[in-house]
Amino acid sequence: MVDDGLVLECRGLRKAFGERVAVDGVGFTIAERETYGLLGPNGAGKTTTISMVCGLLTRDAGEVVVAGRPVDTQAVDARAAIGYVPQEIAVYPDLTARENLRFFGKLYGLAGKDLETRVDEILGIVDLADRADEKTQQYSGGMQRRLNIGLGLLNRPKLLVLDEPTVGVDPQSRNAILGSVERFREQGMAVLYTTHYMEEAERLCDRVGILDEGKLLAEGTRRELVSMVGERDRVHLAATGDLGSAARVVGALDAVEQATRTEDGLDLVVEDARRHLPAILTYVGEHAHVTTVEVTEPNLEAVFLHLTGKALRD
Looking at the predicted structure, is the pLDDT value of residue 140 above 80? Predict the structure, then answer.
């Protein structure tokens, strides 16, 4: 299974709990400097999948290789290349951030100057240096989440696994966490990121796997996934004037798949609206006065609805 440049390779992952199959034949790869998102609703099998990837849960079938080494619940060397950040806050509330980092750093085998240097580095990365010596029970939920991520970075992992890291945090902390994840890729890490927030997947992930009811339904870049439902943008032009003529003229353009007159303007279905909008506005302007323009591009929510028949948050 080993390919140059791949940090994670897994295939055929399967896990059942009694008669319920939680993960059924899931497989994907992640390369260096790549962020891969597992996108799906709660209960889709995301946490079970990454628990098998990290060697925390025995799998019924399948293979996992991290940094060229097979992973299972006994594979200490392979698991040492993984940084895992669970959904649950895994910090000691009666210890300070610095004390938490020192404690977990020692579990990773760090000591002396190397440990202190790494602790300071992590405090800077998660932006907690100015609160490092306060007990974490005094931290906000967002600060605890950031420290939780810091613990997963202590061992300088080749693969960082983040399980729903922004659940329950305030918007400011959420934005800080997303910004940190973007920087991890720049530092060369491979990142596996689970979320049920479509906007997070679109912002962070180079490739996305859509998971539902334990099955990986599709994967690819945002553009590749959106192409499954047709790369057509919807454009609404609020306008006054001869709307009938405007609709006929613009509807004849090659890039315009559909042009419909409405009470307050025109509704268009356009291929790559950003590229063709200037020409469209020129033609419409010969017959009507456009006051506002609204462009709605297809997104991962539409892809999920297309694949499953339900909205992402159902």
Answer: yes
